[in-house]
Amino acid sequence: MTTFSAVTAVTRKSQNHFTADVSSRWTVGHIPNGGYLLATIARAAAGVAGHPDVLAASAQYLRPPDIGTVEIEVELVRVGTGASQLRARLVQHGTICVDALLVMGTLKADAQEFWRRAPEPTKAIRVDCTRIPSTLPNGMPAAIMAEIDARLDPDSTRFVTQGPTGRGELRGWLTLPDNEPFDPFSLLFAVDSFPPATLDIADGGWVPTLQLTAYVRALPAPGPVRILQKAQLIDGRRVDESCYVWDSTGRLVAQATQLASIGLG
After folding, report:
1. What's the pTM value of the predicted model, to 2 decimals?
2. Which parts of the chain are beta strand (E)?
3. Which fold has domain 4-106+125-261?
């Protein structure tokens, strides 16, 4: 087991050039998880930005990198008083694998939520939830599930025991390896950590992410986070999903939307 901060570590080679090692343990179907890759990119961007926290990240997933060394090239587009904008590319063998735009800033520990309209997190107690195994119900290997502790609440496991409900929602809890506290970087992983909510609709096999946009809204309190992964529309063999992440106090700390391919009718 490797901590999230260690597995997403980057090594600086020059002012705007970094390297990182893509781990075989953070894969689904032998493909590196997209949120894990985006968090690694964000760590490199933080080294250039002049602001410590990622506020927003939008990534185009062009092709999955192989396990092993990758390069991350960071371009500082704009420096502002409260935020900086950057572009970063994850490159392997001279080919761009992930192309990302990021907004970096500073999240204040004493900030207070002013207004919200969003779904509510699961009310299920974590110990009553079922840990997701390293082989998904459709038979796909998911080595990443042996590293993290991702659990589905009892209502969300019905697609396994009784078949898909048609709601297209998965709710549950997420804990990092070695109970490492969540931070803005690991929240980029949290928004892409759960299996696709389409498993609660029909088995579409692998659901590769085409584009992911994530917002980090607040510094999370220590402890596990609660996740809601929700499918919105399946059309033209593509699905868009929304993800919401609440910290241990029930505060909404991250959210994301992604577009993915799916092998349904």
Report:
1. 0.96
2. 11-14, 17-22, 27-28, 31-32, 53-61, 68-79, 83-92, 95-105, 130-131, 149-152, 169-175, 209-216, 225-235, 238-246, 252-261
3. Porin (2.40.160)
